[in-house]
Design goal:
single chain, about 100 residues, alpha/beta, 4-stranded mixed sheet, about 15% strand
């Protein structure tokens, strides 16, 4: 059986996995999760979460409202797909990131 080397949490609750690892003193497992919420940030700083993906929530909201405005008020065609950047946050670059 191959030992687990990494866990990808597909929602904002990476801190729950990190808390189990911390409680059981399990080290050496990389955790990747989503969203810069306070519990995730705390575990990122402690080193139990290795990477957080920021989905740029402010920009997503702004683009959604602007798409509604452009469609409803300006009668413009709405793009079917709008690609947005994501940012990979580590404890080393956390302080430089502006959410």
């Amino acid at each position: 059986m191959t030992p687990v080397k990494a866990i990808f949490v597909t929602n904002s609750r990476a801190y729950k996995v990190a808390s189990v690892l911390e409680k059981n003193k399990i080290k050496g497992i990389k955790i990747l999760g989503y969203d810069l919420i306070d519990p995730n940030i705390q575990y990122l700083k402690k080193g139990f979460i290795d990477f957080l993906i920021s989905q740029e929530p402010f920009n997503q909201g702004y683009m959604g409202i602007m798409s509604l405005y452009n469609h409803l008020i300006l009668n413009q065609e709405v793009e079917q797909q709008k690609l947005m950047p994501i940012t990979l946050i580590t404890k080393e670059n956390l302080e430089f990131y502006k959410a």
